[in-house]
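Hey L., structure's done. Input below.
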Amino acid sequence: MKILVAKTAGFCFGVDKAVNKVEELIDNRKTLKPIYTYGPIIHNPQVVSSFETKGVIVIDELEKINSYDKGTIVIRSHGITEREVNIMKKSGFNISDSTCPYVKKIHKIVKRDSEAGYEIIIIGNKHHPEIKGIAGWSLTKVHFIQHLEDVDNITINTKTRYSTVAQTTFNTELYKEILNKLQNKSFHVIINETICQATKDRQIEAKELSEKVTKMIVIGGRNSSNTRKLFEICKDQCKDTYYIETIEDLALNVFTVNDTIGITAGASTPNNIIEEVISYVRNVKF
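Output:
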């Protein structure tokens, strides 16, 4: 059996920055003042659970922030709306902003262009926290596109100017198809390239890797958008693709001694979980 591991598997820059910030706060805590994250710091239940055992509290509803003891609240890597930022500033909590820099850049684009009168088109899942945060920086109407057919559902006003941004982890191939369809419409639109390079590299490598293996393993949280996209990309190339969170999800009896197994992981998957899976597969007894 041969095992091929993607070089891009594991934490991306933005996730690494957010996780390191929480770890730094834990290590440097000199008082009993609590540490909070607004929502899960990243989309990985194992990381979130580990922080909870160290006393980090997840706040899910910002409107209830004043019911908590004052401490430090960390803005997660997905980012939040401008309104939520303002609520935090007025709360009396210390704020540690761990928004991914690439997401922060989109916030600035959306605010700038909406202030100039552009309506905003966001390509991505409108239910994802990153997209909810991005939409919250617009002063004008926001349109959402997740699927190719959604392009037809947007009511275009030829007298209106539009500015387009994309979720940083969006499927790059689908993004190109959506842009092509958008550009066939007769209207004024600015295209802002906001899918992060790490996402592009990860998806390209996943596609290439899954083309040359007999079985593929994709590791990541079930609620991780970027991991889901990696799974979809790999599944298109390799029908025997398995989406797992940890080794507990892995059925080893599906592998044979003649398999070539590819392994990749989402941007929120810590290295220790990836290493556990690699070791587990490597030590399969036939």
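The mean pLDDT is 93. Residues 216 and 262 are 5 Å apart (CA to CA).

-- N.
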